[in-house]
Amino acid sequence: MPGNTKKSADSGLTAKDYYFDSYSHWGIHEEMLKDDVRTLSYRDAIMQNPHLFRDKIVLDVGCGTGILSMFCARAGAKHVYGVDMSEIIHKAVQIVEVNKLSDRITLIQGKMEEIQLPVEKVDIIVSEWMGYFLLYESMLDTVLVARDRYLAPDGLLFPDRAQIQLAAIEDADYKSEKIGFWDDVYGFDFSPIKKDVWKEPLVDTVDRIAVNTNSCVILDLDLKTVKKEDLAFSSPFEITATRNDFVHAFLAWFDIEFSACHKPIKFSTGPFSRYTHWKQTVFYTHKDLTVKAGEYIRGTITCKPAEGNHRELDIDISYTFNPREPNREPVSEDLSYRMC
Amino acid sequence: MPGNTKKSADSGLTAKDYYFDSYSHWGIHEEMLKDDVRTLSYRDAIMQNPHLFRDKIVLDVGCGTGILSMFCARAGAKHVYGVDMSEIIHKAVQIVEVNKLSDRITLIQGKMEEIQLPVEKVDIIVSEWMGYFLLYESMLDTVLVARDRYLAPDGLLFPDRAQIQLAAIEDADYKSEKIGFWDDVYGFDFSPIKKDVWKEPLVDTVDRIAVNTNSCVILDLDLKTVKKEDLAFSSPFEITATRNDFVHAFLAWFDIEFSACHKPIKFSTGPFSRYTHWKQTVFYTHKDLTVKAGEYIRGTITCKPAEGNHRELDIDISYTFNPREPNREPVSEDLSYRMC
Questions:
Q1: Which residues in chain A are closer than 8 Å to B88, comparing Cβ atoms?
Q2: Average model confidence (pLDDT) for chain B?
Q3: Among A33, A302, B63, B147, whose Cα sits 20 to 30 Å from the Cα of A288?
Q4: Has B128 been annotated as catalytic?
């Protein structure tokens, strides 16, 4: 995996912040727009289906720069309401203006939970709400609030389905670069940091050849029916080694579907698909496993908002591995991670 | 230049933050420690000069994980005081402990301006205070406070010299990727964002072959004598084209020197030196220049903390270019940038 180390602000005597945003206010929008797996999937789902959008009332939850709202207007929507709490919406207003769509798109700054749309119901809700590991700092809660309050009984959601997949990977080199590094830092023992680094899932790109098991769906969301409480979940999993190899980590990614389209449109953020800015999420195990093709790793993954901070995710993975031959020890671990 | 787009948090309906730190609290420390141009320069400046550190009292301003304090202890310092306002200092305490240096290193959480050291004076101040473009969110103000309050008259500063250099670059492809992109975003005009993007210096790596002028020192700081007010500066510059080429941007970087060392140690964050996490800083011009080898670009660069937010930097660049032949138009611009 590329060693594009991640950054944080917890450094320095004064606020010597290395937030990327501290030197690029537009970078995230540039990155999301240039993520064409993401943006073209939305564009095609919307603009290839004018028969679904023509003369419809659309709500764009978390409209950002307004790109999805403009796709909907181009697809023939009667009117689009874009809602975003961020200051970006002031730019979105200017963008909609220069693109001469102000008469068909109304942008509202505020929290979905607090604002009042000028309409009772909408026919379609579009939203790009997904976060890392699908649920980390995602806007799904907000989309569900919008759905329950505004979506007409026969209304449509774009997208309307999301799945999280789990597999395992061989990752010796990068694991030692990310975890082992702290054992000897220029001759000093940094193990007090190592144990915290271990608890933190790593968001990064993984080469498909690192995956050495099949994958298992650990969450399958139908956005039309899912409830907020379903987003805290516990799922058993069983994955099977596809070759003789070592396992150093579990790997998670998500897939998205727009099933309301004439021809269903899907995209994956997994290692077998093109790069997206969501990358994948790596959970390093403490023990390394020596697996043979056909052997199982069985376990349970639990994910819930952290106590006291609902923007953080607590993810626990308990697994057991029983090798076929007695010359390899059975392995089982109960691992706890936090995305924060 | 690699298109590693920068990220910000100004996105989404709920706090869908893409701060890198939102998924790596240790990444910045990992990145800084793994920046071996940085870390090995400090290590060598300190540990190759035990004759300067033996039995001395040292203050480490912004000690972070404590690595510099530990270098000083290893170099024979009698006692090291490490000060940092961030929570990281709790980890530093544990790290110093496991490395059995607690008797020689005292770590204090707080603002340099507010805390009281248990000593009247220190013999040496070490600090890694540099930010992007040297001064952006840097800790230099704080180092100067520490110097004026605690450094003995004949005391030493590590480092004790910093320079900012300015040159020009050819950067057509990346300029169109970063600036031109906003002209046509999936068929929409995003020019309202383009004009803001232009005002923001880009922190990124630049290939040495892109540099097509000589460089000019625009700031030269002697840390023993510099005053806080000197950090708001205005400097004339004159740079000379080294080949027939096009100029798309000005480029700034900084160089650091530890001149107190037996053998002075220097490192550069410029395009002609190895990668550092500070990269370089790019200021895109609005007009592109057609220059011939030997022709001058003359101007003035002004840098000061932004009104109302001293963590932001206002940087103005005014320049004039007079080509030798009349068939090329003279060009002059007054450009304003903000690092925020």
A1: 10-11
A2: 92
A3: A302
A4: yes
Rounded to a whole number of angstroms, the distance from the CA of B64 to the nearest CA of chain A is: 6
Q: Tell me the pTM.
A: 0.91
- For chain B, residues classed under CATH 3.40.50.150 are 15-128
Query: Which residues lie closer than 8 Å to B48 by C-beta, 6 or more apart?
Result: B261, B262, B263, B265
Chain A's closest residue to B40, CA to CA, is A186
> Which segment of A175-189, A212-226, B8-22, B254-268 scores lowest on mean pLDDT?
B8-22
Interface test with B, best of A14, A48, A59 (most B CBs within 10 A): A14
Give residue B24's pLDDT: 55
Mean pLDDT of B46-72: 98
Contact B86 A18 (CB under 8 A): no
CATH class of B15-128: alpha beta
The H or E element containing residue B300 is strand B296-306
Can you say whether residue A13 is alpha, beta or left, with left for phi > 0 and alpha for psi between -120 and 50 degrees?
Answer: alpha
Per-residue pLDDT of A155-179, as tens digits, reads 999 999 999 999 999 999 999 999 9
Residue B188 has pLDDT above 60, yes or no: yes
Instruction: Write A268-272 long-range contacts (CB < 8 A, 24+).
Output: A269/A37, A270/A165, A270/A215, A271/A205, A271/A206, A271/A207, A271/A208, A271/A210, A271/A211, A272/A208, A272/A211
Residue A87 annotated to the active site: no
Residues B99, A67: C-beta atoms closer than 8 Å: no
The answer on pLDDT for A22 being more than 70 is no
Interface residue of A11, A29, A36 to substitute, partner B, most B CBs within 10 Å: A11
Domain A162-339 has CATH 3.40.630.30: no
**Which residues of chain A form CATH 2.70.160.11?**
162-339
Which of B31, B97, B137, B329 is labelled catalytic?
Answer: B137
